Amino acid sequence: MKLLIIEDEQEVQDDLIEFLKGENFLCEAVSTASMAKEKVYMHEYDTIILDIGLPDGTGLEVLEYLKKINRDTGVIILSAHGAIDDKISALDLGADDYLTKPFDFNELNARIKSIIRRKQFHGNNTIDFGDIRINTVSHEVAVNNTNIALTQKEYQMLLYFISNENRVITKESIVEHLWGDDTDMFDSFDFIYGHIKNLRKKIINAGGNDYLSTIYGVGYKFQKV
Amino acid sequence: MKLLVKTSLYYALASLLFFAVAGFIILINFNNVIDNDINDFLVNREEIATTQLVNDVPLEALNNYEQIIKITKNKEEVDNLIFSDTIVYDIIDDEFHAYRKLNVIRKIGAVYYDISIFKSLIESNLLVVEILKPMLLVFLGLLSFLLLGNLFISRGLWRPFKETLVTLKNYELGSTRSIDFSRTNTQEFNQLNSMLNTMIKKIHYDYLNLKEFTENAAHEIQTPLAIIRNKCEILLQSESLTEVELKPLKSIYNSCLRLSKINHGLTLLAKIESGAYDNSEKIDVTEVVRNQVQHYIEVIELNGFKITTELSHPIHFEINPDLVVILVSNLIRNAIKHNNTNGIIHIITMPNCIRFSNSGNQATIDVNQFKRFNRSNKNSLGLGLSIINKICSAYHIRLEYCYENGLHNFVLYF
Questions:
Q1: Which of A17, A117, A166, B356 is the most buried (most CB within 10 A)?
Q2: Which residues form the OmpR/PhoB-type domain (chain A) (predicted)?
Q3: Closest by CA position to B395, among listed B235, B239, B279
Q4: Among 3.40.50, 1.10.10, 1.10.287, 1.20.1070, what is the CATH number of B188-273?
Q5: Residue ranges per domain, chain B?
Q6: So what's the pLDDT on residue A29?
Q7: Interface of A with B in 116-145 (CB under 8 A)
Q8: Could you read off the pLDDT of A155-208 as tens digits, one per residue?
Q9: Residue B170: band (very low, low, confident or very high) from pLDDT cuts 50, 70, 90
Q10: Using CB atoms and an 8 Å cut-off, which of residues 229-258 of chain B contact chain A?
C-alpha cells in the first residue's frame, strides 16, 4: 500500500511517516502543494493524506488538480481549521474523508484502511481476522462461520479494533471514534466497559478466541493469539 | 430625568424663590407707605378736632363713627400720640373691619380730652391687592418667558450633543463602517466628538488586533496540539513503559484532548464573531431539532436520561444552516451535561418559539453562564452557553432562561 503524505509541519510529517511505516504502509512525504502536484502526476498512490494549509497554496488546490488529471485516489483531508465549510468544499471536491487536527493516529489508521477497503475490494467486501469474518457491506459478523448479532456500536468497535491490530487503543480514542465530537457529553467513559464486555462475550460465546487484552490504566489491545 | 427638564426645573425654582422674596419686600414697603399715609391723615384729623375743641365746638357735634372724644380724668401721657390697628364692628355690613386708630390725650383749658380717631383700612388693602395683581401677572409672564426661552435655547444648543449620542448608539464595534460625527460650531462639542473619534478608533484597532490574535492563536495552537497528541500516542504504544511512566503520560494525553476541545470551541466563537457564517437561508428549525434529537438519542439514553418531545409546530427562520445545527446541538448538549441522575429532557416547539427543559439542581446554572468559562460542571468546557448566546444575538433570537419546578428552561423566541 502506497501513501503520500502532504504536510508542511515537519514534526507532524515525521510522526505520520513513523506511524504509517509501523502499519506497513509505503510512505512518501512532501511539504508543498507544487511538489504534491508533481508527485501525484508521476505516481499512483492508494491514499493521500492532505493538509489544507500549505505554504504555497491550499490542499484544496491539490484536490482540484487530482480531479483534473483524473486520478481516482483516496484522499483524507487534515485540517487545523475545523471549519464546516472547508469540510464541505473538500468533500465536494472529491476527498473521501476529513480529520481535524489534532487527530488520533488510530482514527486515521481506521479511516485509511476503510478507504483502501472501499477502493480495492470491488465485490469482495470481507475482512478476515483469525476466526472472525466481517462483511463490510452487510455489516454481518461471523465467528467460525456462525453469524453473531452485534449492535451498531459493537460493530464499529470491532472494525476499529481490527483496523488497529496490535496497537494500544485508549478508552478516549474508542469513545471519540464512536461518538465524534460528543465525547464531552459523558461524565465518565465507564459505560464503554459494558460495550466492550458485550462484544467480547459475543465472540467468545460463538467459539471465537479472546483477542482483546487490557493494558492497565491505558486502554486495550486487539491482537491475534 | 432629561437635562432640559432638569435645567428648567432649577430655573423655575430659583425664579419662584426670587419672586417670593421680592414680592414680600415690595408688600412690606407698600404697607409702610400706606401706614404712613394713614397716620398722617389721622394726625391731620386730630389737629382739626383739637382746633375745634379749642374753638368751643360742642363735644356732641364732634363725635361721629370715626371720631370719639371723651373727657377723661387721666392726666398722664398728655400729647402722646398712640397709633394702633384695631377692628371695629360694622352694624350695616354685620362684620368686623380693620381700622387704624389714633389715640391721644389733649389738655384744652383745664379739661383733659381723650381723642380717638379711626380710619378704615378697606380701601388701602384693596389698593395693595390691586397693585399686587398686575405685578404677579408680570412675574408669571416673566417666569414662563424665562422657562420657554431656556427650553428653546437649550434645545438648539444641545442638538449636536444629541446627534453625537445617536451616532454612538448606531455604532457597532467591529463593523467596517467608520464612525462619522457631524461638525458643530460649539467648541466643546467639537472637542467631545474628536475625542470620541480618537477613542473609538483606538478601541476598534485594539478590537481588530485582539480578534486577529484570538483567531491566529486558536489556529496556531492546533499544530502543536497535534504533535503533543501524536507523540503521546507513540509513547502509549511503547511496550517498555512501566505503570509509573504511563500514568503521567495518560494524564498529558487527556489534558491535550481537553485543550483541543476548548480550542475548538474558541475557534468557533471567534468565527461566529468575525461573521464567517453570514450566509443564511430559510430553515425549518423544528426539523433541525428533530434531527439533532435523533443524533443525541443514544448519548441521552446512555446517560440514563429520558427525553420527550413535542415537535408539531414548524418554525421557519432565516439563519445559517451550520449555525442553527450548532445552536440546537449545544442546547441539547447543555441539557445533557447539566442534568440529574435519571433526569428528564423535554423539548417543545410552539409557533415562533422553542423550549428546552431539563431537570437539574438550581445552583448549577445561572444567567452568568452566558459568558465564557463560567462553569459549574467539571466536565463542561463552559463554552456551550456562550456559543448559544453568541448565535442568538447574531440573529436577534431572544433567549430566555428560567428555573421552575426543578427544571432549567431555555426558551428561544424567533
A1: B356
A2: 124-224
A3: B279
A4: 1.10.287
A5: 3-142, 188-273, 281-413
A6: 93
A7: none
A8: 999 999 998 888 889 888 898 888 877 777 776 777 788 889 999 999 999 888
A9: confident
A10: 229-231, 233-234, 236-237, 243, 246-247, 250, 253-254, 256-257
- The three grid cell numbers given for residue A136, joined into one nine-digit string: 463490510
Instruction: Show the DSSP H helices in chain A as ranges.
Output: 10-22, 33-42, 59-68, 84-92, 105-120, 152-163, 171-179, 191-205
Q: What is the mean pLDDT of residues B154-168?
A: 88
Contact: A187, B233; criterion CB under 8 Å: no
Interchain contact A149–B (C-beta under 8 A): no
Residues A46 and A151 in one domain: no
Length of chain A: 225
Last residue of one domain, picked from the residues A120, A142, A174: A120
How many other C-beta atoms can be found within 10 angstroms of the C-beta atom of residue A101?
Answer: 27
Chosen domain end from A70, A88, A120:
A120
Q: What is the rounded CA–CA span in Å between residue B184 and residue B193? A: 9
Which domain, by its residues, includes A188?
Answer: 126-222
Same domain assignment for residues A103 and A155: no
pLDDT of B374 strictly over 60? no
Distance in Å, alpha carbon of A101 to nearest chain B alpha carbon:
6
Residue showing cell 448566546: B389
If pLDDT is split at 50, 70 and 90, which confidence band does A123 have?
Answer: low
* Contacts with A81 from chain B: Cβ below 8 Å: 219, 267
User: Which residues in chain B have Cβ-Cβ distances shorter than 8 Å to A83?
Assistant: 271, 276
Asked if pLDDT for residue B381 goes beyond 70, the answer is no
Confidence of residue B373 (pLDDT cuts 50, 70, 90): very low
Q: Which of B302, B332, B334, B345 to mutate to test the interface with A (most CBs of A within 10 A)?
A: B302
Strand ranges (DSSP E) for B27-150?
Answer: 67-71, 82-90, 95-108, 111-120
Q: Are residues A101 and A137 in the same domain?
A: no
Residue type, A83: A
- Chain B CB contacts of A84 under 8 Å are 322
Same-domain pairing of A94 and A134: no
Cβ of B299 and A18 within 8 Å? Answer: no
User: pLDDT by residue (tens digit) across B16-42?
Assistant: 898 889 888 988 888 888 889 889 999
Chain B contact for A189, CB < 8 A?
no
Q: What is the pLDDT of residues A173-185, one digit of tens each?
A: 898 888 877 777 7
Q: Are residues A16 and A37 in the same domain?
A: yes
What does DSSP assign to residue B47? H
pLDDT tens for B98-154 read 888 888 888 888 888 888 898 888 888 888 888 888 888 988 898 888 888 888 888
- Contacts A176 to B, Cβ<8 Å: 257
Q: Which of A19, A101, A105 sits opposite B222 (nearest CB)?
A: A101
The residue among A21, A18, A24, A13 whose CA lies nearest residue A50 is A13
Answer whether B412's CB lies under 8 Å from B399's CB: yes
Same-domain check for residues A91 and A108: yes
CATH code of residue A197: 1.10.10.10
The CATH-assigned architecture of domain B281-413 is 2-Layer Sandwich (3.30)
Chain B residue with minimal CA distance to A82? B264
Q: How far is A118 from chain B (nearest CA, A)?
A: 25
User: Do the Cβ atoms of B147 and B103 come closer than 8 Å?
Assistant: no
The residue-averaged pLDDT of A26-50 equals 91
Contacts with A, B 275-294, CB within 8 Å: 276
Are residues A150 and A197 part of one domain? yes
* Total domain count, chain A: 2
Give me the amino acid identity at B173.
L
- A107, A136: one domain: no
Q: How close, in Å, is residue A119 to chain B by CA atoms?
A: 27
